[in-house]
Specification:
The protein is mostly helical and about 260 residues long. The chain has one domain. The chain has ten helices and two strands, in the order H-H-E-E-H-H-H-H-H-H-H-H. It has a two-stranded antiparallel ribbon. This is Nicotinamide mononucleotide transporter family protein. It is found in: Membrane. It comes from Mariniflexile aquimaris.
């Protein structure tokens, strides 16, 4: 009898912990902190004061001069980049909460990010972002059809292999097509690996694998290392937030799965 009481008590305690984990992971306060953090970093770096004008990037353009530049064909690349960063964060948070709206928003933010990345000089974006765009569409469809969180299987490891193979192919193809000369072999591999991790993360999201946010944790760690080396403290802070968010989401998906927990 005593053993049964202990088992019931332990079960109740686990359920309470599960509810607490879900409440923290889905907290609107995390959404709020994330938006303020990303917005503050963009403003601190003066991203919003960047204009694409006459084939080049102009920094430090006051907002009061935007209408003048736009009337002459200027493109408010910084302002759209800032807005896109905030919306991308909210989309990521919606995906954490298993809401398909996050994937749907991701389709449009991918287009926005691709255009901005290309204008900032990453011409390889023209061959990498269409793939990310297609995966976002796939994720939206599969979630709409009722995709459920599942453990890794043979297909998962095949997707990982294909993801990294595709990453290396596209990155090196981009270097070749656009004449990018980089003598640092380590840098070339790091670009391909980071892109590969992001591809695996996006594919895992589409198929709702438990390890989805473990993959995104690796991605955020890689970005942390990269930005720490570059001395970009603002981005270091941003990716610390993303890393904590991914860790919470990983445990929530793994422990609570698709279960609708009553508050």
């Amino acid at each position: 009898m005593k053993e049964n009481v202990i088992k019931v008590s332990n079960q109740v305690l686990r359920e309470q912990n599960n509810v607490l984990l879900r409440k923290i992971t889905h907290s609107k306060y995390i959404d709020f902190v994330g938006v303020i953090l990303v917005l503050s970093i963009c403003i601190y770096n003066n991203f919003h004061e960047t204009i694409y004008y006459q084939g080049g990037i102009q920094f430090g353009v006051p907002l009061r001069d935007f209408s003048n530049y736009i009337s002459k064909g200027g493109f408010p690349i910084g302002l759209l980049s800032t807005i896109g960063a905030v919306i991308s964060l909210l989309a990521a948070r919606l995906i954490v909460k298993q809401r398909n709206l996050g994937n749907l928003i991701g389709i449009f933010t991918t287009v926005n990010s691709g255009v901005i990345d290309y204008l900032f000089g990453n011409h390889s974006a023209i061959i990498t972002y269409p793939l990310t765009f297609a995966i976002a569409i796939l994720a939206t469809k599969k979630w709409h059809d009722g995709e459920r969180i599942k453990k890794i299987d043979g297909k998962y490891w095949l997707l990982v292999f294909v993801g990294f193979l595709t990453s290396y192919t596209l990155v090196y193809l981009g270097f070749y097509l656009f004449g990018t000369t980089i003598d640092n072999v380590i840098f070339k591999h790091s670009v391909a690996i980071i892109f590969g991790i992001s591809l695996v993360g996006n594919i895992s999201t589409a198929f709702k694998y438990e390890q989805t946010f473990l993959t995104w944790s690796f991605y955020n760690v890689a970005q942390l290392i990269k930005n720490t080396i570059q001395g970009n403290i603002a981005n270091v802070v941003k990716y610390i937030f993303y890393l904590l968010n991914a860790i919470l989401a990983f445990f929530d998906w793994k422990i609570n799965g698709d279960v609708k927990i009553k508050n």
